[in-house]
Amino acid sequence: YCLREAIAKVRRPRRLTFEEGPLADWLARELRSCVDELVVCEPRRNSWIARDGDKDDPIDARKLADLYRGGYLKAVHQSESLGRSLLKQQVSLYHDRVKERVRQGNQLVALFRRHGVFVKATHTLQDETWHLCLKQLPKSPVLQQGLTLVRQIYALLRTQEESLRAGLIGLAKQEEPIRRFETLPGMGWIRGVTFYAYIDAPQRFRSKAALWRYSGIGLERRHSGRGPVKTRLSRQGNRRLKNVLLGAAQTAIAQAENAYADKYRHWTQEEGIPAPNARRNVARAIA
């Protein structure tokens, strides 16, 4: 309310900008109706603010305003609806749980291997296998307590992951675009809802090349003077989108009986394109 009141005192046209951060999504939804233009900008581009000697809130605000007037800010997309924002939040939470579950599983396996016991993390959830593995370890209460703790965390994360996965699939089935994504070879419900949540508004991309760069599967061009034009893989981009598209491409190729697998075979066998480059081409075709 205080922010809206302060903004209302400014004569129109009102233009507001602030940097991307934990509060940016909420602030954008709450303040968008109060201004004529709202720009949530990429803080990594604002090195003039971050690296300058004098730094406090009034100075930073003035510099940010100068960057805005000069057209030097890079806008960061924000979901306009609360529903889309919450869907993206849920997708992110799911992937965080998957990452943490894998980490805890690897830690559990590593702890057993330190004592010469080789077992898969999923097998430790079976009581019979668990007790059999414990019998092969030194008789140490400290060791067993640590292993039991990691196993409990791993089991909890698996339960949370399965619950979140079921919920996401239920949400995905309610969205018509995701139902179409799911029919693509290699995509599936989770990859489909992840792509949908992170892309949000396809019209914000000027071209397919811009979408590919944002997804981490595009190319960057380097050229100076009369020198040769060099291209390289984009080093930035959304890692989750990159994992979704490359994973979908790999699955589609493995399924073999689809148009993407046919393209992959054509590129690798007839045109001699290296397998990683051909897989990336398939990912671009899916996107």
Automatic annotation (TrEMBL):
GO terms for molecular function: DNA binding; transposase activity. Residues 179-263 form the Transposase IS116/IS110/IS902 C-terminal domain. Pfam families: Transposase_20. GO terms for biological process: DNA transposition. Transmembrane segments: none annotated. This is Transposase IS116/IS110/IS902 C-terminal domain-containing protein.
